[in-house]
Amino acid sequence: MAGGITVWPAGAFPLQPEQVETAYRTLREALAAEIGRVDADGLDSCLGPVPEDLTDAEAFHAWLGGHLPLEWVGLRLMAEIFPADDRVELSGRIVVPEGQVRIVDGDVTVDGDLLLEDGARVMVLGTLTITGSLVAPTDSYSLVAAGRIECRDGVTGRTIMALQSIHCPGTFFLSSDHHDSIAPLYTGGVLVDFMWPAQFDRVEVATRVTGGIEEIDYDAAVAALAIPEPEDDDWDDLGSIYAAKLLASVS
Prior knowledge:
globular; alpha/beta; single chain
C-alpha cells in the first residue's frame, strides 16, 4: 500500500450460534419481506451455518453469501442481539485489506477516508461516520453495512446497507449493475445509480442519475460525477475514474 495509509486493526467478533438462531426465528418472516424475492422458507434454505467468529471471512461468506442480499440478515440480527455501545475512532486514510472483515458493536468515526480492498467487509452496529470519502472496489465484491452511514463522498460497485439511513452531502456513485444496496432513507447531494436503482425506500437528494440497464445515460453520469469521459468510450471505467478522483482529493 502507498504511504499514509493505516490498516484498520483486526479483532475477533465471537458469536453464540444458538443466540443468533433464536433471534433469527423471531425475525425470519420480517427479514424475508425486507429482502424480497423469497419467502421465509426460501430464506432458511439460503443461509449457511452461523459462524462462531463473524470476522472469519470464509465462515462469513458461508453464512451470508449467495444471490440474495443476505448481508441484510446478518446486520439486522447483530443489531438485535448486541447493544451497540462500543466506540472506535480512526484517523487518516484507513484501509480494510483484501478479503478481511471488520465488525464493531457500536459507533465508528473515521477522521479521513475509508478504503476497502477486494472482498473486504465492514459491519458497524451503530453509526459509521467518515469525514472524507468511502472508496470500495468498483469491479469486485465488498460490503459496508451499519445502523447509519455518513460520508462526504463515496463509490462502490457492490453493497452498502444501513438500517436507518445513509447521508452523503457530496456525490455517491453506485457504479455497477449488480449491487444490492438497501436503506430506508438516502439523503444528500448527488446520487448516481444509473445502472440499476438501489433499494432505498426513500431518496432525498439534489440530483439523482438513475434509470436501469435499459435507460443508461452515460453523459449525465459523467456530468454529475464531474469526471472526464473514459478513453475509447470504455464506460466500465467510470467507477475507477471516479474512485481515482476521490483518492486524489485531500480529506
